[in-house]
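Entry 14. Ran structure prediction on the chain below.
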Amino acid sequence: MPEALEKWGVDLIGNLLPRHLELIYCINQRFMDSVAYRYPYDASKLQRMSIIEEGHNQKVRMANLCIVGARYVNGVAELHSEILKQTLFKDFFDMKPNKFLNKTNGVTPRRWLKCCNPELANWLDKWTGCDDWILDMDKLKKFTKIADDPKAQAEFNTIKRNNK
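Output, structure tokens:
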């Protein structure tokens, strides 16, 4: 959400980190020059893409600074990446679409489960009839068939107790 993006007051940064603010202004000027060159008659685009939000109390748009300074922008999920590209940072995406990626970062819960709880992972292997649920979450849908199976529940509860 745009309202959740951090904006830091220019006065605050200027008082605490004057050289940093000077560098931010330099970065913004260079970036604004490139935007103006690419979109020469679009003042509203310049205003939206500027790192510095103009107004009575100028603010540094931290997300814009990050996008300008980063080699790539990565969403944490495909849906998140699409929101970034199509709405929140559309102007940036239109200017440099190759900068926006969607790579899964970190460990999926299934891989984490396999490493941290091998007993439960083996139980999942047994009851799904496969061991590739770690790569394909749809394979876990097989559990709906055993939801009421007393033997499966008893084994699960034993594993749960063992891990406490």
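The beta strands are 7-9, 52-53, 59-61, 73-74, 100-101. Will compare against last week's run tomorrow.
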